[in-house]
Amino acid sequence: MYIGYGYDVHRLKKGRKLVLGGVGIQNPKGLDGHSDADVLLHALMDALLGAAGLNDIGHFFPNTDIKYKNISSLLLLEYVYKELKKKNYKINNIDITVIAESPKIYPFIDDMKTNISKVLNLPKQRIGIKASTNEKMGFLGHGNGIAAMVVASISEKKGCRNDKSS
Ligand code: ZN
User: How far, in Å, CA of 89 to CA of 2, rounded?
Assistant: First the structure.
């Protein structure tokens, strides 16, 4: 069994759409970035890639590449999932913490889990998503950005090292 850890943070900016866990959330500001800046999915991808001993998402999806401009991070997550499958890894569980002063994340957690569950073929009860604030301290607390931290557990599928179809 292998554990991976991922962390990401993005700046909040007026005029951007806020997308977290593949869910569009009504908010005066959205996260700034080259893709849809879905900080939650970015941290999740880094946790999965890290657990598999692979390079980080900046290596797989460089922000200089026009084809990733405003792309849905759910598509990037799908790519990462396929990379893990190629290496014969299965995901055991993932645990996500989002740090945002606002908006309230709680009402959207179930939809986020549904999105992630579909892409990773992982039952929703194996996906934890918690929301926290930064108690009004620092850049997160002042609402300048949103951060996410993710721990993921994966293991090698037994007895099917060369079975590409699994
Ligand atoms: Zn990111």
Answer: 10
User: What does pTM read for this prediction?
Assistant: 0.93
Using the mean position of ligand 1's atoms as its centre, give its distance from the Cα of residue 38 in Å.
6
- Using H for helix, E for strand and C for coil, what is the string for 63-96? CCCHHHCCCCHHHHHHHHHHHHHHCCEEEEEEEE
pLDDT of residue 158: 82
List the domain boundaries for the chain: 2-156
CA of 57 to the centre of ligand 1 (A): 8
* Domain covering 2-156 in this structure, CATH number: 3.30.1330.50
Q: How far is the CA of 122 from the centre of ligand 1 (A)?
A: 22
For the chain, what percent of residues have pLDDT higher than 90?
88
Query: How far, in Å, CA of 17 to CA of 24, rounded?
Result: 7
